[in-house]
Amino acid sequence: MGRRAGAKWALISPFDQPAGPDPAGPDPAGRQLVGFELVRVSVPLRRPWATASGSFSERDSLLVRAVVSLRDTNGDRQVMEGWGECGALPGPTYSSEYTAAATEVSERYLVPWLLRARVTRAAEVWPALSGARGHHMAKAAFEAALLDVELRASGQSMADYFSARSAGTQPARAAVTAGVAVGLANDTHELLDEVGEYVGYGYKRVKLKISPERDAQAVSAVRKAWPDLVLFADANGSYQTLSPTEATERLSALDDFGLACLEQPLGADDLRGHAQLVRRLRTPICLDETLTSYNAVVTALDTRACSVVNIKAGRLGGYLAAVRVHDLCASRQVPVWCGGMVETGIARAANVALAALPGFCLPGDLSATGRFFETDLTSPLPLRHDGTIAVPRGPGIGVVVDQEAVRLHCTWRYWWPAR
Ligand code: MG
What is the pLDDT, as a whole number, of residue 53? Predict the structure, then answer.
């Protein structure tokens, strides 16, 4: 389907979309896969991270380092590396994926299949892994690592790459509005202290984790203290434990606080329940855990189960899918924002680049270096005085991976050479 004359966005029908990323096409650089390294790190958090479904105080993460040999523009062969970060949490508290399982499936299946297919580019990852069901975050980490190599080799930033790949006609933004997600606090006092700390740093958007036990009172207290703050609430599906009537009653109480959106109140598979909430609440309903693929987003929008979309690249299977979802939502004028997974600077830099696309009209979970960790794994992504983060413009993810910090926090690593 062609672009409408004069339209800002192409009208995209789901039936026009290919089943997966575009084929990689010819390879003038003569790329050869050198190998993959899996690196497990455990990075202490500044304060424990608590949601309705669990908490942790160290970020146990799986990183992927992809190494590729290629010819540069002078025809000289050189070896380059790229990094990806798996969004899976330490336990199966967000989705069924968790770090140890991502490591296991990578070791047993994903790495051997990628080596066998001799992949060298991001667009080749999904086709090579089509035999493996699920594990989107693990697959996305390989795609991100190879994309980082590709773009470092071509000298292109991720933001420019995403912009060129998108159907939109506006360029990537130079900066994105930062946002901070605040975990469940022990009491309102503690919550106000923590939110006050971030507002003091300059954050203009805060997302509060809520649960049926800690909702209206907490949101009310924050709203009263900061009437102009852009406020989101994220239930991580926790109202699925209530009856539909009880859930609607409790969540309706949040309508008085001017939330920009209420995220994932019900279970991931409850499209009907979310559609009912869309009809009954004034607060816009956003989906997160439900949206596990491009097709899942299409279904959610078609059934009016949400009016706002959280785009989280790992959950969707990678940044290439995330750009497609961005374009889909833009074509339907659905507001989107970029979700986070308590990630280090490796994934954060890529997320900031993604959120530079013009369809990201709400501020996402994009906080500066230092929000989660005393010691991050990359060069800093600082918060600027106007509450924004500059979009990295260097090649690839645009930040430098701190090899010493990776070594310091590494708990396990293993290298698989291509043969
Ligand atoms: Mg969420």
Answer: 81
